[in-house]
Specification:
The complex is a heterodimer. By secondary structure, chain A is mostly beta strands. In chain A, 0% of the residues lie in helices and 48% in strands. The N and C termini of chain B lie far apart (36 Å). In chain B, the strands form two sheets. In chain B, strands 2, 4, 5, 6, 9, 10 and 11 form a seven-stranded mixed sheet that branches. In chain B, strands 1-3-8-7 form a four-stranded antiparallel sheet, with no helix packed on it. The chains are: A mainly beta, B mainly beta. Chains A and B meet through strand 5 of A and strand 5 and strand 10 of B.
Chain lengths: 118, 106
């Protein structure tokens, strides 16, 4: 059974940093691209970052480029999201997802809440 | 950036009623993807590559379209289908999602 379990969320002040983790199991982690997607309270879905299966390439939207860094440790089947210079608009539930694949994001974690507030 | 415009934003349907949601892209995309999200839960893949049903999705659901115009249909609404549905494209970066259609049971 595929499982994605996020951790590391919490309350953080504007301008500070936070690092999310996602432990994957039930599939061969190093065969898949991985992606973080977020959802602000009561809002829609927003792509945050993607990484290739080897970790050799990463992709970001302009809203987080230069502030967020996606990485992975294939030996530990773990995906990370380092978030720096956090802003109030980064407040959201962050989902770890497998993909994109042919079926796009075919597995999602339960999500981890990040609140940026003073 | 490809903007995905979903309509309607909210709707209510009676059991047995046919439901159609549209998703228009600001530029042509190769495929459209759809996700279902129920309150308090993570989104679930529902339709991929425009018309293929994800594992476990009932066949009363269907998807169609091409280019900039796509649709998502429930042939006969059931109470368990009440949820928010999002369209999504990854033909080009940034990957984008529609703003969602909240479907309620009448």
């Amino acid at each position: 059974e595929v499982q994605l379990v996020e951790s590391g969320g919490g309350l953080v002040q504007p301008g500070r940093s936070l690092k999310l983790s996602c432990v994957a199991s039930g599939f061969t982690f190093n065969n898949y691209w991985m992606t973080w997607i977020r959802q602000a309270p009561g809002k829609g879905l927003e792509w945050v970052a993607s990484i290739t299966n080897t970790g050799g390439s990463t992709y970001y939207p302009d809203s987080v480029k230069g502030r967020f860094t996606i990485s992975r440790d294939n030996a530990k089947s773990t995906l990370y999201l380092q978030m720096n210079s956090l802003r109030s608009e980064d407040t959201a539930t962050y989902y770890c997802t497998r993909g994109p694949t042919v079926a796009s994001f075919d597995y999602w974690g339960q999500g981890v809440m990040v609140t940026v507030s003073s | 950036e490809i903007v995905l415009t979903q309509s309607p934003t909210t709707m209510a349907a009676s059991p047995g009623e046919k439901v159609t949601i549209t998703c228009r892209a600001s530029s042509s995309v190769s495929y459209m993807y759809w996700y279902q999200q129920k309150s308090g839960a993570s989104p679930k893949p529902w339709i991929y590559e425009t018309s293929k049903l994800a594992s476990g999705v009932p066949d009363r659901f269907s998807g169609s379209g091409s280019g900039t115009s796509y649709s998502f249909t429930i042939s006969s609404m059931e109470t368990e289908d009440a949820a928010t549905y999002y369209c999504h494209q990854w033909s080009s970066t940034p990957l984008t999602f529609g703003s969602g259609t909240k479907l309620e049971i009448k």
